[in-house]
Amino acid sequence: MTSRSLLIMALPVILLAAGSAPAADEEKIGWSDEAELSLVSTSGNAESSTLGFRNTLIRAWESSTLEIRAGGIRAESDTITRVAIGTPGDFSEQETSESEVTAENYYLNGKYGRQFSEELFWYAGGGWERNRPAGIDDRYLVEGGMGNLWRDDDDLKFRTQYALTWTDQENVVPLSDVDETWIGARFSWNYMNKFGANTTYENILVLDANLEEGSRWRGNMLNSVSVSMSNHLALKISLGWQYENEPAFTKGALFDPSDLTTPIGEVAIQLDELDSIFTASLVVNF
Asked: Do residues 281 and 37 touch, judged by C-beta distance below 8 A?
């Protein structure tokens, strides 16, 4: 990660150091952490592995919070090729394996927020994201804005946020005629509803608009349901969507219509607008 991304990640901590946290109730002061881990692995005639993780670290005061979130998913599969060398009655077997990354998505972001009143707060933060299968090599974002805290009960929480953003994006296949640094606007919400003593539903929505090119907007939504097994362990299933109205590009081989076996060059091909990710994971709370 470059020094630029480290500076973005340090922004909430700088803001935290600049503003004094008020004296608070002991029950509201402290650290909390939630870690999720999912793993799927196959071997033998077919070999593949998928590893996913998310972590949310929160430091809370009476009127302010610091959140640091990190996560990622990586899927890799091996293509096994088996051949025989010799004659039909006398041959030896040879096996080769070639690995390919089929999914790769990582993120790291931080946010510091402070309440003006029971319903109104301001916040600032920054983040980094990498999603090479979607054509994004590195995306850096800084945001600052305000939000409303509509409900903050033990079993129901809902808040909305509105911010201005600065984005700098580096694509896997850069295009010379596309500006990948822009000023934007962001709208987001966080919703949590607890059903009974053990089941919790969460919904997170983020909409980003490019204020310099209106057609270049994107949206992410994450739905999850978790069931507690104890005070520190839970099972969670999540379904997320990532939408890019004008997605990035990848390189594709170019063939002559008369010969589809030998490529004659490479061209930029635009990727799909929508990606979906489903995970089932074990959650550890501290």
From this structure: yes
H helix and E strand count, the chain:
1, 14
- The verdict on residue 118 lying in a domain is yes
Domain limits for position 234: 3-41+50-67+107-285
13-27, 193-207, 229-243: least confidently modelled range: 13-27
Closest CA to 67 of 22, 125, 141, 7: 125
Beta bridge partners of 92: 85
Tens of pLDDT along 69-83? 999 998 888 777 777
- Alpha-carbon distance values, 68 to 38, 132, 166 (Å): 20, 23, 19
Report residue 110 CA to chain centroid gap: 13
Is 72 inside a domain boundary? no
CATH number, domain containing residue 263: 2.40.160
Question: Checking DSSP bridges between strand 217-228 and strand 233-244, what pairing results, if any?
Answer: antiparallel
Angstrom distances, CA of residue 177 to CA of 161, 174, 180, 200, 264? 33, 9, 10, 46, 24
Domain count of the fold of the chain: 1
Single-letter residue type at 5: S
